[in-house]
Batch of 2 targets.
Target 1
Amino acid sequence: MTTVDFSNWTCPVPLRDTPNVVMGHGGGGAMSAELVEQIFLPAFGGSVADLADSAVVTAGGARLAFSTDSYVVKPMFFPGGSIGDLAVNGTVNDLAMSGATPLYLSSAFILQEGTDLAVVGRIAQAMGLAAAAASVRLVTGDTKVVDSASGDGVFVTTAGIGLVPPGVEIGPRRARPGDVVLVSGDIGVHGVAVMSCREGLSFGTSVLSDTAPLAGLVAAMLAAGEVHVLRDPTRGGVAASLNEIARAAGVGVSLVERDLPVPPAVRDACSLLGLDPLQVANEGKLIAIVPPSAAPAVLDAMRAHPLGAGAQVIGTCVAEHPGMVVAQTALGGNRVISLPIGEQLPRIC
Amino acid sequence: MTTVDFSNWTCPVPLRDTPNVVMGHGGGGAMSAELVEQIFLPAFGGSVADLADSAVVTAGGARLAFSTDSYVVKPMFFPGGSIGDLAVNGTVNDLAMSGATPLYLSSAFILQEGTDLAVVGRIAQAMGLAAAAASVRLVTGDTKVVDSASGDGVFVTTAGIGLVPPGVEIGPRRARPGDVVLVSGDIGVHGVAVMSCREGLSFGTSVLSDTAPLAGLVAAMLAAGEVHVLRDPTRGGVAASLNEIARAAGVGVSLVERDLPVPPAVRDACSLLGLDPLQVANEGKLIAIVPPSAAPAVLDAMRAHPLGAGAQVIGTCVAEHPGMVVAQTALGGNRVISLPIGEQLPRIC
């Protein structure tokens, strides 16, 4: 029982001048980072430099990756997948971004009173199939129910444990000037697929979510050559992931805009909605930062894998502008790709 | 990307004649069990017999306990603790109930838009202190924000990893006729503390939640003698936990009602509210089922620990009435202690 009195505790910083939670605090951009850095890390005793898609810890001599994510995507079923697919693949991918072989998942459900049980069943079925496809086992779970005014259908939180092979050391701090920046395929797909069926925003597109488990692709890459950093660019997109890496490693990232694989349907939808494809969420893509000597072999391995067939070199890490991402535009100029502030697309995952 | 079409999937059983989620599906009783057995286990490929507070798995040669729980308690701050304390202690305790030493926790927040950031901060502070008190590290996390109509303040989901010492084999199937049933102290305390400040139900009581981390108590017990089963009787209380054990092991459980440690304030509040103290949630107590030869030493070890000072023998496992819990009443009769159906006290944890 905690006996400390928190009643006079006040927020240490006026995050973006609001004393309250706003949607942007969940957007995976600058406001999310402030929340983590100003509130959670001081309370939990962590450090910013260690933030990655999953934590690597040791237990009983085994090196484990450990990660969790809550999923609140709206709608729960969208072109190409469901909240159940995301909940499994998203946590599998967070583990894979530490180079781990994902092994076990937990699942915790917060159900809104009145939700159709068949919807719960369809989500569970999707999770079971996704787990089988990713070769992980759903081994433990929990279910809570909240009254109809306090929830929204089904929220799923998964956590996962993976095993990090000996010698594998992947983390955002390992990016070095000269390293090559790779992306495994078309970007912006998941976000556009979800937005295309969002209430009030329906527009005609054939884009399907790219939700997929990336551990097999990662294993093929690690077998081909050294990898310094891996990241799956979900909320906040490629822009957020690259800014986080640049900041953690103290390097600059230089992109070539015309090399970014943005499919025409994503480009069209982003024009329509006023979005930057670099900030749109992906759920089946990864960014890899690899030493130049390893880049050709790693790129070949990616292209030989079904989930990396569209892999591209999109830029390099540089000593200039440390902590900053800069893109060479098609017109020959430069633009700064900043960390998104808040939320472009609420409840995208 | 899952390509299977679930649109025609229907619920395999009409759980309690409702096609929709009701509050009782989150109550930890018979309706929760139906949800798990009819929907989640078939989808996930698990088996009922293995259900315990945490799963025991192997990774890299290490034997790990793995568990998760979502916390949606209302109000978020209550006499004796907060949702932050519960989220840490609850998952620590689930790990401890496998005999594990808890090591690492993850935390995933679902924040309602508009929630005071100071409330988020107070909860984070409580989690950090509770983690330090339980000697676990909060190593990874996530934050999502949902619109104000879709959440309720702060929902926290924690998952945890613990290390199971060699030779420790604890699980509900290990209960045997002749085993002694112990409880570590006063029951019904947490549930009454939360209800005492629930909107619309305020009543005068001095009861404080018993939220506490039990891993130290468990370590002391395991050092003293063999333990077959451990369970922390949260939702559904002692009644639900003992019914689950009786069912998993195929034994009967015989209780002596006058030996149940129910403090007068809990008895009074339960009378007022029409509740059975055996069904009220605890957050800092455990039930242990131990072989008769080990019972005296384990009981002594419990009583020597601050969190087990009120430990009592409350009954025995018997070969009669397998799967059923029966209490000898104060008047000399017997009554069946059944698995609660739904939810006595919604959102108690």
Note: The radius of gyration of chain A is 20 Å.
Target 2
Amino acid sequence: MIQEYINENKERMLEELFSLIRIPSVSAQPDKHRPDMMRCAQRWQELLTAAGVDRTEIMPTAGNPIVYAEKMVNPSAKTILVYGHYDVMPAEPFELWKSQPFEPEVRDGHIWARGADDDKGQSFIQAKAFEYIVKHDLLRHNVKFILEGEEEIGSPSLSAFCEEHKDLLKCDVILVSDTSMLAADLPSLTTGLRGLAYWQIEVTGPNHDLHSGHFGGAVANPINVLCKLIADVTGKDGKITIPGFYDNVEEVPENERRMVEQIPFDEEKYKQSLGIDELFGEEGYNTIERNGFRPCFDVCGIWGGYTGEGSKTVIPSKAYAKLSCRLVPHQNHNEIGQLVVDYFKRVAPKTVKVDIQSLHGGEGYVCPIDMPAYKAAERGFEKAFGRRPLPVRRGGSIPIISTFERILGVKTVLMGFGLESNAIHSPNENMPLKLIWKGIDAVVNFHLEYDKD
Amino acid sequence: MIQEYINENKERMLEELFSLIRIPSVSAQPDKHRPDMMRCAQRWQELLTAAGVDRTEIMPTAGNPIVYAEKMVNPSAKTILVYGHYDVMPAEPFELWKSQPFEPEVRDGHIWARGADDDKGQSFIQAKAFEYIVKHDLLRHNVKFILEGEEEIGSPSLSAFCEEHKDLLKCDVILVSDTSMLAADLPSLTTGLRGLAYWQIEVTGPNHDLHSGHFGGAVANPINVLCKLIADVTGKDGKITIPGFYDNVEEVPENERRMVEQIPFDEEKYKQSLGIDELFGEEGYNTIERNGFRPCFDVCGIWGGYTGEGSKTVIPSKAYAKLSCRLVPHQNHNEIGQLVVDYFKRVAPKTVKVDIQSLHGGEGYVCPIDMPAYKAAERGFEKAFGRRPLPVRRGGSIPIISTFERILGVKTVLMGFGLESNAIHSPNENMPLKLIWKGIDAVVNFHLEYDKD
């Protein structure tokens, strides 16, 4: 019956999703895309209204606006708050895309575009499942939606928004589709997320670019220094060397280690899909533990000096990098943020000046697998995919999930339908069409199952 | 008398120099500037003709053409070959220039523009001294000019050109104005140059950019790896750690160490002019030794990952750097080039692929201070500046100088009139006007003194 509805409405639904994708709502580039943020929020408002909400509002924040919508069927019934985000990552480098990032194309059964998965495609699944439930008069609980426009830059305005609108956002559980499954035929529910801390570092050497012949060997080169500072953060054993970094890190519990062993994982296939010969990570942990349970340090960007064609012999005045750490439960992102800032200031040689700023961060999250909403999600997945989903801790960060818990006092169920191969945050982001349809099926069943408890 | 001529012709001369500077002859950016190379060569041809040569030709090479010109007064007289280059370094980053790099401006007694010193300004000094000598009928030896258009990219076509035109380039000594003095009131003659080797390195991790949350900690990040590779090249003592790197390096001779001690050098002033608190370099050597007598390793550029506004959480597929070494006499740039390529391939971890290419290089050079042309240059400087110039080894590289010696069998005298504060290769390159006029004076006197031997 759900499949029938999907088949009858496929074309309209795809056109609706494409209308969202075509708006380049890149939150990290406000100079270029500020008007697109409002356009995208308005388009969501139209789509949610058409889907059946009875109230919707575009609510201002200090940053990009938040789309709020609700359908209240019964004040004494339970309330589910659906969270998603309408902003997307930058699409650079454009030249690596096979088709235009903001002009969705269907090829080989996938939608190819920025946001096809993260998070326009996935939020769309929530909206269309809601539409089905409403149109078939199956809704027995209240549903609220909030769609924010700053997730990809760390949700700087959302916690203030939650504090200010606690009553409006009152709910029993939060439902989010913004994570991925182990494989298209191996559904899973995300039971943990890593936290994040992110910095920009600027190393200044001489007060202007120098001729590397006249000064080379006598003056510290800020690129060389920056490389040394970065290199020293990771030990040979793959551990982060910054004193105090692991102080609050919880060791992987034995029962979770045993659950990890249940997860089918083919290391050869994994390496092959990434085109690498050898994996690298912290000694004493396997890949799933490394990217689900353990923190890490990655440079997300680096630049300095001459980067054009050919050769220029220069000692640049400045070198820069964007640094990030994924954090795990009990690591406070503010504390780690400061720890790393203090560390770099302490170890920086006197031959240069080091300026480092925290850009954003957020806490990790753990979802209990015995709560009713989790169990409803499990059954929803099982009905749509014919297979019980595995509980898995994932390495990504949705900092706002721990903020919701802190401010609104509710847990979140992460019903994600992405795949690692969807290349979110990368060129050629994509989403298999069949996962959109199965996702709608699973979320519809979640709503139905949730009422049974 | 020379000053009088200069005073009478100042405005015309400046306009001539500016006409050269206005042509953005950036050899490192052929896609953008190929037509400018020919325009600049033609402008030089016009100016040399007006200055009094009796033959001039724009000669093709595999790369940018070479401007040849000559005035032969007597087949049995000695011949001086003046070498210069009409290409310039890229002007990026443009935003750091106080005035347009290719629109020369006179402020505070300096010309501000790319090429004001290196090497349009300095080659112009040679042309105008020649003009004076010819116009006043003082020329007693033959003069040849070659101006190339690829010096800033390592003169890839010039050695083939020299091999092919040995007869045309036959001469007794080569004269070059492309170096700097210790200070405006402290003339010096460059008696040594460092060699150069230059590479581009590409580190490839995963076959596409990855979400740093899903993969962070489990997959080697090519930026982190590149930083480690670079950091490991320099030891705590400032020495290069690559095995075999110092094998052919000549220790600073004791008599040269004593000459270095004669050079007035104010370390505090040096640091202040660069805006740095501490110098860095190889232990056991002072600053002048470090940048004149010792090799070094500098990263001239680095890039990879997200370098735009805000934060993007990505493990990039690739990271790049431009690496360079200044070399000293007896270090062969081809050997060092290969040594470094082999080193990086050997130490690269198996978690990534490392590709490294030699871009260009050249040998160092030493000029004997007892040869007649050197002595004539010494007296020329003394007449113009009222002070005997100090012999100094400098850290820059003009690889072609050692090539001239190898192919044409002649030594070069380096009569340079630049200053370190002229910011060559940097934003806000400049040249004090008075050094242009004093330079012409010194070169005129060189020609006159050279005939006396």
Note: Chain A has 13 helices and 18 strands.
